[in-house]
Design a protein that fits this description.
Layout lengths: L4 E6 L4 H6 L9 H11 L14 E4 L2 H5 L22 E3 L2 E3 L1 E5 L1 H12 L3 H9 L7 H24 L2 E6 L1
Amino acid sequence: MGIRYYAYPVTADRIAAASIDPATAIPYDPFATSFMPRLENATNPNPLDDPYDDLYLDKVWSWVGHLFATDWCEPDRPAYELFKGNATTVDVGWIPWEQFISPQELRVIAADLDSAGPEDVDALIESKKYHFTEREGEWILDLLRQTQQFVRRRVERGEGMAIHIG
């Protein structure tokens, strides 16, 4: 099945618990909840009507993260915080990475996310550093836009965010 990326809103009433344990804001089965609202409400996939309002970046979250990582000698950009995690592989599977990001941190991250666009994806592909194809670049751009919208909604609502990579 593979390791996948999921992010969830953390409302004001759940921030204290999620800051101690991000798992309190993450569904028991992230994979299932990623698809339920889309299947139930396929004709109107409006995030405002979506009871889960999650962000699902599949197995390629790190591809989007490459837009915000810097060289080893420089600090990463603020938006890289969303993509830095990875599950820990063990003999019989993996241990998921779970992280809480506060509303204050999300404001800074949102500004950095919004500064990225098609020209950054084009530059990533042209660099040949990661050997992305143009088609993969279209996927990266789509996932970037989904991430920007999801984080913007969190900021507008004063929410935090819980990430599960696993």
